Amino acid sequence: MQKEEMKRSKRIVVWPIYLDLNYSRSKGRLTRKECSVRAPKVSEIKRAAESLGLHPEIEADKAHPSTWWDKEGRVTIDNVGPKTVLLDKIGVEIIRLRGGKQ
Fold this sequence. Notes:
Blueprint: H1 2-9, E1 11-14, H2 42-51, E2 57-59, E3 74-78, H3 83-97
Antiparallel strand pairs: 1-3, 2-3
Helix pairs in contact: 2-3
């Protein structure tokens, strides 16, 4: 059990709202506008994180506290650097996967 807890502490939670261009920074977005996308899906975040080698895991039926009624899920990734840098990389990767569209 201890080993599992240690493993979890080295992970970062990525909520879709962190990358959503439709939200302002005061409403929950953590990425810069040029690294944000409109309505990102958990599956897109997972795919982008996989291509960056961050070993993503989807946790379905989870809701961000600010949108507790919307259980869109979240993704946990390896903690290999500052959270904002990792989120920007994921956002840029999603834009690339969408063919350059935010």
